[in-house]
From TrEMBL:
Pfam families: UbiD, UbiD_C, UbiD_N
Listed transmembrane segments: none
Protein name, entry field: UbiD family decarboxylase
3-octaprenyl-4-hydroxybenzoate carboxy-lyase-like N-terminal domain segment(s): 3-77
Species name: Fusibacter paucivorans
InterPro entries reported for this sequence: UbiD, UbiD-like_C, UbiD-like_N, UbiD_Rift_dom
UniProt-listed PANTHER family: 3-OCTAPRENYL-4-HYDROXYBENZOATE CARBOXY-LYASE-RELATED, FERULIC ACID DECARBOXYLASE 1
Domain 3-octaprenyl-4-hydroxybenzoate carboxy-lyase-like Rift-related: 92-284
Domain 3-octaprenyl-4-hydroxybenzoate carboxy-lyase-like C-terminal, first and last residues per copy: 290-410
Length: 438
């Protein structure tokens, strides 16, 4: 809070706000600009916070680096995670504990965000599970629909949580889970890391936080959670039970459909006395950037295996931080632009359009990228079209996820006529300042 206020990044919403739709609307008004602290939520004592991180700088600041070093730091921490120690202190989130019959999710200010959402959704919970065979934990964020006081539905795409849950389900056993709401941004970012199964994302977060992350044990489940968070919901992912969850307004700004989904039975709710409830409004910069930065890091690493001179990757907001990648390379061999495109596609099935440019182009400036396309790209030579591969099922233009993809190589040929591509320049412009002429 102190940081946000010092940076003038905090909008304190004093007016009474209704939890359904109105809270989402105000969050949207400040999307990309400010964190919203809702101090007066109708029918609830607990304040709500949204847009906790809202641009690249706020994320970089949260892990103590400059924006242009964020991906490097993330990759370094993924390469060398740091095991966490247990805290010896009683954590603040254990000052109010509900167990058994006392558990009541409906007391928390959990919003309905969009018009056709199936109900109230928890969207900013770090879902932690422990693989008891290795002691390593897995952390991920999932949309969680509140069904009643003690039950939630969960969407689990086939990644690491699904991998562990399906083993328990095959044995007819429930999987212990904990959901942490109101944890530090570094933990949210670490939860999105694209790693092999078995890498503990809390250890990545600990590396990002310079070994300051301590854990505490849960009350009713065998899971360790961060010492500092506002609310911890404990529960069991039950085997062989499915209930209808959804629809839900998702990151591409369309609704994900309703379907039969696994169910969590809540066994405890622990919270700070003065807890603040964090919600992530789907499709906002906060939502998109958390996934986008993780994908940029992963794609940079993959492309570097085949094009070592890759400089940076930008997965754009316009593509919901999922579908379009702009890649800059320092081309040293003819054909590397197309190899970078192939590597980008191999990195993520969600990627649909890739543009590769030379390293004199600012890939975070859409006009600059378009200029490269306009003046360095010829479709007959530089366009790669791939038909009928797997894309994102949430892209409504795909056929149940089957999608065409294109790669655009807008790098200059190495044997070009350098006179034709001489970029015009005004001598001395770099040193000139407007104020000196006013
Ligand atoms: N992944 C899902 O499978 N289901 C979801 O409902 C879901 N919702 C998300 C909501 C937000 C706000 C964010 C940032 C991500 C969401 N994700 C969801 C993505 C996963 O959290 C992410 O891919 C994570 O890295 C998966 O971790 P795992 O591979 O360790 O299972």
């Amino acid at each position: 809070m102190t940081y946000l206020e010092a940076q003038d990044h905090l909008a304190k919403i004093k007016k009474e706000v209704v939890i359904n739709h109105e809270l989402a609307g105000v969050t949207k008004l400040f999307d990309g600009e400010k964190t919203c602290l809702f101090e007066n939520v109708k029918h609830y004592e607990m304040p709500v916070i949204s847009n906790v991180v809202f641009d690249r700088k706020s994320i970089a600041d949260s892990v103590g680096v400059e924006v242009d070093k964020l991906i490097d730091k993330y990759l370094a921490c993924m390469a060398e995670p740091l095991p966490c120690e247990y805290s010896q202190e009683k954590p603040a989130h254990k000052s109010c504990v509900q167990v058994g019959d006392a558990v009541n999710l409906l007391e928390l200010p959990i919003p309905i965000h969009h018009e056709k959402d199936g109900g109230q959704y928890i969207t900013a919970g770090l879902l932690i599970v422990k693989d008891v065979a290795t002691g390593k934990q897995n952390v991920s964020i999932h949309r969680l629909q509140v069904f009643n006081e003690k039950e939630m539905g969960i969407l689990i795409l086939p990644r690491h949580l699904w991998h562990l849950f399906s083993q328990y389900e095959a044995r007819g056993e429930a999987l212990d889970i904990a959901i942490c709401i109101g944890a530090a941004p570094a933990l949210l970012l670490a939860s999105q890391a694209i790693t092999p199964y078995g890498v503990d994302e809390l250890e990545i977060a600990n590396a990002m936080l310079d070994n300051q992350l301590k854990l505490v044990k849960c009350e009713t489940v065998n899971v360790d959670v961060p010492e500092h968070c506002e609310i911890v919901i404990e529960g069991k992912l039950v085997p062989s039970v499915r209930k209808v969850e959804g629809p839900f307004g998702e990151f591409p700004r369309y609704y994900g459909p309703a379907g039969d989904r696994p169910v969590i039975n809540v066994t405890a709710i622990c919270r700070r006395e003065d807890a603040i409830y964090h919600t992530i409004l789907p499709g906002t910069k906060e939502h998109l950037l958390l996934g986008g930065i993780a994908r940029e890091a992963s794609m940079l690493r993959t492309i570097a295996h085949t094009v070592p001179t890759v400089k940076a990757v930008h997965i754009t907001f316009g593509s919901s931080c999922r579908y379009h990648a702009v890649v800059s390379i320092k081309k040293e061999h003819e054909g590397e632009g197309k190899n970078a495109i192939l590597a980008a596609f191999s990195n993520s099935h969600e990627i649909k359009h890739v543009i590769v440019v030379d390293d004199d182009i600012d890939i975070f400036d859409a006009d600059h990228v378009e200029w490269a396309l306009a003046t360095r790209f010829q479709a007959g030579e530089d366009l790669m079209l791939i038909k009928g591969s797997l894309g994102s099922k949430l892209d409504p233009s795909s056929d149940k996820g089957i999608s065409d993809k294109i790669g655009l190589d807008a790098t200059l040929r190495l044997d070009r006529d350098s006179n034709k591509f001489q970029v015009m320049r005004i001598p001395g412009l770099e040193q000139m300042k407007r104020e000196d002429y006013l």
